[in-house]
Predict the structure.
Amino acid sequence: MMLSWLSIVRLGLVQMCLGAVVVLTTSTLNRLMVVELALPAVLPGLLVALHYGIQITRPNWGFLSDTGGHRTRWIVGGMAALALGAFGAASGVVLFETSFGAALAVSVVAYALIGLGVGASGTSLLALLATATEPRRRAAAATITWLMMIAGIAVTAGTVGVFLDPYSPALLMKIVGVVTGGAVALTVLAVWRVERGLTPAPRHSEDVRFIDGLREVWAEPAARNFTIFVFLSMTAYFMQELILEPYAGLVFGFTPGQSTSLSGAQNGGVFLGMLTVGIAATGLRIGSLRTWVMAGCLGSAGSLGMITALGGAAVPGTLMPAVVSLGFFNGMFAVAAIGSMMALAGQGRGSREGTRMGLWGAAQAIAAGFGGLVGAAVADLMRVAMANDAAAFGTVFTFEAMLFVIAALMALRVIDHGRGRAGAVVPGE
């Protein structure tokens, strides 16, 4: 027996919870450290990079759930670790006001837990979907869960933004407690008995060495080139993640609640971009995977140029539409890139689909941490060198736009125009 549509949606709720908890640490807590506590942006950049760096273990978590079975326990356990890490990260922010050393120690442990939690829960969830979903439903299942994650990010960021004003440490801890506790409870309900009655998935032999499979995949030119593309494009995708809210606060005068709502609006744009590609590519049969990837990259570059230009006048009402535009094209790029990933995963040596997805997932996680850290560090350096916040942040946005243009050009080589349609990853096939 395989997963029903209801079970797929239930598992999508777990992905939604993952997005809801993570957005607190990558946007809200980041802004509080940089603006309210006047800490250098590189500090939250290093912490977020730590949580992404630890996610390089994602293939190992998948291997553990493959060999041991019972993926549910890894999903729930990972979510519990993530929730504990997020609550600890919020505690660290509050502690920074009185003791930098203690706060830093708490934050390092907390962000390490966040990385382990996301890796264990997220990887086991995707492994369960991949092994227990009928082949004809796999693409739709992947898209449904991705959109639910984006919805969780957007709704949480927007809602927290409303309730966080006026900011106080006590209010922050209360909000984070509600979100993390709710995420664990919803995850338990979502996965309750889902695995019961499913056809057992084949397990890896415990004698199989993961490193051997990884070497075989890396030897494939298509897989290797696509890995480079994923790293480059995702570096661009995440470079503004840690500096957009501080930019809104320092240049446009946004309050903590307003800047968090800005992040929610951006992710709402991502959601709309994904839906647009789904409707156009599936319903209207317009465009190939490569076309949508390139359009998303070039549109993201243009939106970043607009965000940079608006910093000169710094009129608060103009930033929101530009950020929504960035989110829209980011979403267009992301869903098309996922489609390319799924199309390429089954090519090359057999029985290595999971290894390829693990390799690309690791590349994405490393790029996310690297991009966020570089963006924050360069912003700090430029603020010192230029003594002008708008120009300093604008330098980072411009460099990010250039990376998106390079990624669009690289897509011409690494993604086959005629291999599959973008609609192959959207419900309705």
User: Anything to note?
Assistant: The first helix runs from residue 5 to 36. Residues 215 and 355 are 10 Å apart (CA to CA).
